[in-house]
Write a structure and sequence with these properties.
With 580 residues, this protein is of the alpha+beta class. The chain contains eleven helices and 28 strands.
């Protein structure tokens, strides 16, 4: 990680200053409990933006609240479904918070398929990634869409003006479109908002779009969009056929994330060999450019980041173990990525950027699109990259001030001061979180008490409702009688248990009276004699102690009297001498 910072800064002294800003910036997302491990892009160090990233799926336990999902888009247990495999369905998934950096990269993995049995039907399904300075989530009105009399979603979208693949025809920003036509294509178009676009413009080179024929409908297509500080934008796509690539290949297993210490061979029959051992375990494909691997009595989920590198996703170790093709880390293979578009410097205006995804399954046929991973990385060490006010609250301004003061860290003293300030900020934040945690525990205890009370009240009301007849508008005597009989049965049962326990106590007392008062076993006699001897020993000790105490008291009194007599004689001597 230090090497990443070094390359980003371009020198030893600058690296130290950048490292301080990087530390502060990395602390912002990490305070959310989301890994903020530095990421590498084009030789620069960056960190993951937690509000704009997720693995597999989202829930309200993490960052689902940062996104607006509508139409057919819904987070499932193991993936984010953009659109379901049903004709004439839309998908809508937009971020509510902006990316606030000019130097960032968005990477996501999707899997897609179509219904092969409907080849004669029109192939008009499409999926799009949007990057815009406008917040479509803030303008979106789902209630207006669903409240049209026909209840037709397409008509509802037309009513609110979202006719361009669930977006505005005069949108501002980037539209990266994945279309399923006679030839699968990936296209990109930048619109400044001055022109009104139709769907054909998104893929037409005549309208200014950049397009590339690419079979993007795979079990795991990776997409990367890079925005640089000068405003240039570049988009790339990687489609890797894991099945063909993995069969018969040899990979190194680097448990420390760096050095391969063991070799794994993947067999065509689905088994694996570990070093020179026999074939065992197995491997299988998982949607999202992933593979399941079972070996040495352990199961791993492997995510491919290219043809020569894969990461173990389900490992708790840090750093994560990785697989290296041939056992060597040869870096990123640019051949794995196919550049789809490049937009010149000055294209991206900077400021805030909102991202979103939308899709249409098709009018007669359909496509299914699922998203398995989204990662947004900030490479600008001077800004946090996203709004973390929900976590930092009142401390946000102080954190931003630390990030913006990077140029002040010119000498060792100022850098030490910066580290001290970061430590103080972190300590303050931890203390606040501890207080919030204690308050949360207290609220949970109170909530549990309220729930117990509610449960008791609900039981009472439920019994009353069961006893009440809404037809006759009165309580049914038979039902009440049944409740009374039930209560009587409980009392009778409890009385029987109580009487049995009382009987046992009385019998025990009777046995004790008849046996315990007149008969003693040998063991009991020995215990009584022992107690008697111990009692006499205690008495003797107490008597001896009393005698010693009295003797000491007498000696003390005699000593005091002697001292008094001597003192009195001396005083008389001085009086006589003075008198003479």
């Amino acid at each position: 990680r230090g090497g990443h910072v070094q390359r980003a800064a371009g020198g030893g002294g600058a690296a130290s200053t950048t490292a301080l800003a990087l530390l502060a910036a990395c602390a912002l997302p990490s305070l959310r409990g989301v890994a903020a491990a530095p990421r590498k892009g084009a030789g620069k160090a960056g960190w993951r933006l937690s509000h704009h990233s997720f693995e597999r799926t989202l829930s309200y336990d993490d960052t689902l609240g940062d996104w607006l999902a509508s139409a057919g888009s819904i987070p499932l247990r193991d993936r984010l479904q953009i659109v379901p495999p049903v004709p004439d369905r839309y998908g809508f998934f937009w971020s509510k918070k902006p990316v606030t950096t000019r130097d960032f990269e968005v990477t996501f993995t999707v899997s897609a398929s179509d219904n092969g049995e409907a080849k004669r039907a029109p192939l008009d399904g499409a999926f799009a990634f949007w990057l815009s300075p406008d917040s479509l989530a803030a303008q979106y009105n789902e209630q207006a869409v669903v409240s049209v009399p026909s209840k037709d979603w397409d008509e509802g979208l037309q009513k609110v003006g979202l006719t361009l693949l669930s977006n505005k025809p005069n949108f501002r920003g980037l539209a990266m479109t994945f279309s399923d036509a006679a030839t699968q294509t990936v296209s990109a178009l930048w619109n400044d908002g001055a022109k009104t676009r139709v769907f054909g413009d998104l893929t037409s080179t005549a309208s200014g779009a950049q397009s590339k024929a690419l079979k993007w409908m795979t079990a795991g297509t990776q997409v990367k969009v890079r925005v640089t500080p000068d405003g240039a934008v570049k988009g790339s796509v990687m489609t890797l056929d894991v099945q063909k690539h993995i069969v018969g290949s040899l990979w190194g297993f680097a448990e420390d994330g760096v050095t391969s210490k063991n070799m794994i061979s993947f067999q065509a029959d689905g088994k694996v060999t570990w070093d020179d051992g026999p074939a065992h375990g197995g491997w299988y494909l998982v949607p999202g450019n992933k593979m399941g691997l079972t070996m040495n009595n352990q199961t791993y989920v492997i995510r491919f980041e290219g043809s020569n590198r894969a990461v173990v996703e389900n490992s708790q170790a840090e750093p994560q173990p990785i697989l290296l093709y041939g056992g060597q880390d040869t870096g990123v293979h640019e051949d794995d990525w196919q550049v789809v578009f490049t937009l010149p410097p000055g294209t991206f205006p900077g400021g805030e950027a909102y991202m979103g995804f939308s899709a249409y399954t098709g009018s007669k046929s359909y496509i299914e699109v699922d998203m398995h991973r989204l990662e947004t990385v900030n490479f600008d060490a001077k800004v946090a990259g996203e709004d973390d006010s929900d976590v930092l609250e009142a401390q946000l301004a102080e954190w931003l001030e630390v990030l913006e003061s990077e140029k002040k860290y010119l000498d060792q003293a100022s850098q030490s001061e910066a580290v001290l300030r970061l430590t103080q900020l972190l300590s303050t934040h931890v203390e606040r979180c501890d207080k919030d945690g204690d308050k949360l525990k207290e609220n949970l205890i109170k909530m549990e008490e309220r729930l117990d009370t509610l449960g008791s009240d609900m039981s009472t009301h439920l019994a009353a409702v069961k006893a009440y007849s809404f037809e006759s508008q009165q309580f049914e005597p038979e039902v009440l009688k049944g409740h009374i009989i039930g209560i009587k049965a409980i009392f009778v049962k409890s009385k029987g248990i109580h009487d049995e326990k009382v009987r046992r106590v009385q019998q025990a007392a009777k046995d004790l009276k008849t046996k315990g008062g007149t008969q003693l076993t040998e063991s009991s006699k020995r215990k009584v004699i022992s107690v008697q001897e111990q009692s006499k020993a205690v008495e003797d000790f107490a008597a001896a102690g009393s005698s010693q105490t009295n003797m000491l008291l007498l000696i003390l009194c005699a000593a005091v009297a002697g001292l008094g007599f001597l003192f009195l004689n001396r005083m008389r001597y001085y009086e006589k001498k003075h008198y003479i």
